[in-house]
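Researcher: I'm preparing a figure for a lab meeting and need a structural model of a single chain. I don't have an experimental structure, so a prediction will have to do for now. The sequence is pasted below. Please return the structure as tokens so I can convert it later.
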Amino acid sequence: MPPELIIKFMEEMSPSDLENFIRAHKRLWKIFEEGADRDSLMARVLKNQPEFETILYIYTAQHNENHPDRMLHPRTINLALGRGRKLTLMHGVSANRRRNRNKTRTQHPLDITVGIYDLARLWKMTTIVDWWVAIYPMLRWREAPEERRCLRPNEEARLRKAVARWWLYAFHHHTRFRRNSRAPEMWSFDTRLYHLRIMSTTEIRELEDVWELLFDAVSRDLCSSVELHGLVPDLVPWGHGEGRHNKIVETYLKLDPCQLRQILTAFSGGFQKEAIVMHASASIGHFPADRETLSTSIHKVLRERVLARGIHDVGQLPRMGIVDEDRDDEQSLARWIDDAWPDGFAPLSAEKLSTFPLEPLAMVPRGDDGSDENLPW
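Model: Understood. Here is the structure written out token by token.
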């Protein structure tokens, strides 16, 4: 087979698949290293991934973006390949950003250049998404292993985008920047809600589907310990007898996809509780201070979305899961595919918004790392 055709095949692979492919034979490795303009090929592979734009937003995030006026500022990102060559990874366009319910301002794209070192780090981030794609069938069909299968291409694309959106939200609101102690409030200018509002309803529901599966995985595989009753091992959830277990799981769900992957691969197994607590505390400052807010933000934005359409119950939405078996037919989903709010706020008049009741002020509940000495307040 000619090298040119092999390179074409390489471009259609995921980063992890390509790594495995070139290790299979010396000739494939040589084509990758010498005949394919390796850096350019890697960039093209990354650009083919449906989540790559979101990964770029994570990688190029700036501290001053964590503000309603500047959240997810549009950007043009170029990769410097050397000898004056460059490849555009993302092309930003000017966007109108609502500053309040009556005023907007235009945001012009930031101009960012990244290098080969950055390319390697972006590649690594994308292989983490690959890992979640690989284990998803085991999580989804945990109770029915005989039905387990690989994800179809359309299902994998949904999952990849959902994992990247989880990562982006966690980066801004759980792990990297100062966390907001107030719970998200409907119709407010809250950056946590902004992340969800710019997504379509189908994308939000797909993320919700992933989040529910993650709750189960963290509960079973991370926040439970094996205890022996006589000679019989039993999996006991942390804090179950004290009513703490859900709090503990919601605290560990602040971890981003990379952090959670590290802990699951290094410590799951039910015998290393102290190590898990220490590792999580080292990953996120003030780890037990609060819990995840993504589930609340998802609920709030879905409520906004249906109320804006005159529907009063989120339960009336069709099923929109990751795998085809968890989705209704395309006709039922059609009206929920292109309904994102690009400026991050509901396209409703101030008069209409005033008809909705105000939510009472609430704080993000205190977290619980599962340790025996965890304080109850």
